[in-house]
Design a protein that fits this description.
The chain is flat, with a radius of gyration of 28 Å. It has helices spanning 2-16, 31-41, 55-64, 68-77, 90-96, 124-135, 140-148, 154-166, 172-180, 190-199, 206-213, 215-222, 224-243, 250-261, 268-282, 286-299, 305-318, 322-338, 342-354, 358-374, 380-391, and strands at 17-18, 26-27, 44-50, 78-84, 104-108, 114-119. The N and C termini lie far apart (83 Å). The chain is an alpha+beta fold. The protein is 65% helix and 7% strand. The chain has a four-stranded mixed β-sheet, sandwiched between helices. A two-stranded antiparallel sheet has the order 1-2.
Length: 393
């Protein structure tokens, strides 16, 4: 009887807590039960929201959440649960608390009110600071309350801005409120500049348009390097969005290029090269695209193999200038030194074929086919290319 009771107790403990082994003990509980337990225990409910496909989630769970010191602190001070944010109730919780990135760390009171939050694959030390902040007087909810009550000191707004950023929380409402109640005549003051520098990323916003219009005055007050860095980062982020497919329209790229031309800032030429590259890509102006790609690779010392491969493949498809094809071939030869991948072999072989170097093309097409077989890829394309190069057609 005693033995059976001990086994039952052991099984109960295993089902009640997961992810322990020196780290945080996450309790397997229904959402409402977890809130009730937090209220009854006089503790905050800590929620780690994850998704299976997220690499940052995996890093956090492997290294931070299993840390002994983290486990001791969180197990003592919080009721801890994990939620898959792509399954119920995680989907609803994500909507309720405006979760936009993973992993997310939510600290709630027993009534479900958000007290504090964090996000990302932070290390153990930062995770402990996050938990201690959640138990302190300067939580995100406390800062929200101060801001709504009219607190606008520079030190507070800096702290509040960083807290929102570290929580991956929306800052647009805070920014909109501040600038709505601040006369444009005061947008050059230190507090307004700080708000722009820390929180405004939209190049077409009133604040960035104002910064561009009065670039020289901002530079005199706060240093040209600092102001130029802000303008550069805003433009770069928008270009990244365009390149990653958030906005692929020709109009968007041309509009951004026009905006860049309205202000002088350090490294402007590098961003213009990227913008011109995208414009000519979208317009299918391949001679100009080739010139832009060569400039981008040289100016920005591009070493990313996928990016170089993208450029080089378009050279193979659309560019006829032998010198430009040789340059693209040199990129891919360097790539293959460190990344003997089927796709990269194929691009290099294709460039060699277009340059009339049939022997080299066949050699590397065979290597591409062998690598594709090892990588368990679909072989149809590689076989077709090899046959094409062998026939010389």
């Amino acid at each position: 009887m005693i033995k059976t009771s001990l086994i039952s107790l052991f099984i109960l403990q295993l089902s009640f807590s997961v992810f322990s082994q020196g780290g945080i003990s996450f309790q397997d509980m229904e959402w409402n039960d977890a809130l009730t337990k937090a209220k009854n225990d006089g503790k905050l409910l800590f929620v780690e929201g994850y998704v299976e496909w997220s690499e940052p989630c995996g890093i956090l769970e492997e290294y931070t959440l299993t840390d002994k010191e983290v486990g001791e602190f969180y197990n003592k001070n919080f009721v801890n649960i994990r939620l898959d944010m792509e399954d119920l109730p995680g989907i609803q919780i994500g909507d309720d608390y405006e979760v936009v990135s993973y992993p997310v760390m939510l600290f709630l009171n027993g009534d479900g009110k958000l007290v504090h939050r964090g996000c990302g694959a932070i290390d153990s030390e930062e995770f402990l600071v996050l938990g201690k902040d959640a138990l302190g007087d300067n939580t995100l909810s406390a800062m929200d309350k101060k801001f709504k009550s009219g607190e606008r000191s520079l030190d507070f707004l800096v702290e509040y801005s960083f807290a929102l950023e570290n929580a991956c929380a929306d800052r647009s409402g805070m920014v909109e409120t501040y600038f709505k109640e601040t006369s444009q005549h005061d947008w050059l003051n230190e507090t307004s500049w700080m708000m722009i520098n820390l929180n405004v990323e939209d190049p077409y916003s009133d604040q960035i348009q104002y910064l561009i219009a009065y670039h020289d005055m901002f530079s005199l007050k706060y240093g040209k390097d600092t102001v130029d860095a802000k303008v550069y980062n805003v433009m770069l982020d928008q270009l990244i969005d365009i390149y990653e497919g958030a906005d692929l329209t020709l109009f968007a790229t041309q509009a951004l290029r026009q905006l860049m031309q309205e202000v002088d800032f350090e490294d402007k030429d590098k961003l213009l090269s990227l913008a011109n590259l995208k414009v000519n890509d979208l317009k299918e102006n391949w001679p100009q695209y080739a010139e832009n790609a060569l400039a981008v690779v040289e100016e920005q010392d591009v070493v990313d193999p996928d990016q170089l491969n993208e450029f080089a493949w378009k050279f193979y498809l659309f560019v006829d200038n032998p010198e430009q094809l040789k340059a693209a071939s040199a990129w891919m030869r360097n790539v293959l030194t460190d990344y003997p991948d089927a796709t990269y072999y194929d691009t290099y072989a294709s460039l060699k074929f277009k340059l009339g170097e049939k022997v080299e093309a066949v050699k590397f097409a065979r290597l591409a086919l062998q690598a594709a077989e090892l990588e368990a890829e679909d072989l149809m394309h590689y076989k077709a290319q090899l046959k094409k190069f062998e026939s010389g057609k």
